[in-house]
Amino acid sequence: MTKPHDKPDDTRRAFLVGAAIAAAGAGLASEARAQDHRQDHTHMAPPAAAQPMGPLEGHGAFFNDDDAATMAAFTERLWPAGPDKPGATEAGVLNYIDLALAGAYADQQDFYRRGLAQLDAYCKAAHGKAFADLDAARQDDVIGALEHGRATGFVWPSAQVFFNTVRTHTMEGLFADPVYGGNRDFAGWRQVNFPGAQPVFTEADMRSREAFTRAPIVGLQSRADNTKRG
């Protein structure tokens, strides 16, 4: 699992991209069925360029500073930044998970509290430091131990269940509509060429295997704003 840390981990990226493409295809088909016949969307302005998000920005609804630091480091190792490719941090994944745990995923708050406590206890026992204080190579080793059930000291949630849940929520934060707090500046969608909540897809668009380039990427908020103005 460990690879040179000056470039993204291709294995983990491939897993998330594959799942995202499947989700994007389902979303595109749903949008096509629900099209509202508004043909003229060529004048939509692309989103303003966003400033890079700091490692601990975007929390406070649920996570405290220590847990936010752990989650920011964990999600960044699952989806590391690469040349011209924002990682989980810049894409706002921490903000997405933080907001979700204060809202729709409130029933998982104790799951995260216990999982993060067990994670740091394991890291301190095995490596003498909390997860956020380890270097990237050690963090990858720990994530691998979680993924394969080798990390000790986990009772509930188990190491593998905790890993799978964080990975799933990281994927959601990367590829869900930005209205939910992640996918900042469409960072996830841009990396898989998903066009977002377009008002209309033509039959040619649906058949094409090429990246959709007819209009700027738009999210649900853009569509809501345009509907109000219309």
Number of domains: 1
Which consecutive residue ranges, at least 5 long each, have pLDDT under 50? Answer: 1-8, 21-55
Major beta sheet, specifics?
Answer: none
- Strand share of the residues? under 5%
From the spread of the alpha carbons, the general shape counts as elongated
> For the CA atoms, what is the radius of gyration?
19 Å
The averaged pLDDT comes out at 78
Please report the number of helical segments. Answer: 9
- Counting helices, strands and paired strands, the structural category is mainly alpha
What series of H and E elements makes up the topology?
A: HHHHHHHHH
Structural summary, described in words:
The chain is mainly α and 230 residues long. It has one domain. Helix content is 50%, strand content 0%. It is built from nine helices and no strands. The chain has helices at 10-33, 65-78, 93-101, 109-127, 136-147, 159-175, 187-192, 203-207, 220-229.
What descriptors fit this protein?
mainly alpha; 9 helices; 230 residues
Question: How is the secondary structure organized here?
Answer:
Elements (H helix, E strand, L loop, with lengths): L9 H24 L31 H14 L14 H9 L7 H19 L8 H12 L11 H17 L11 H6 L10 H5 L12 H10 L1
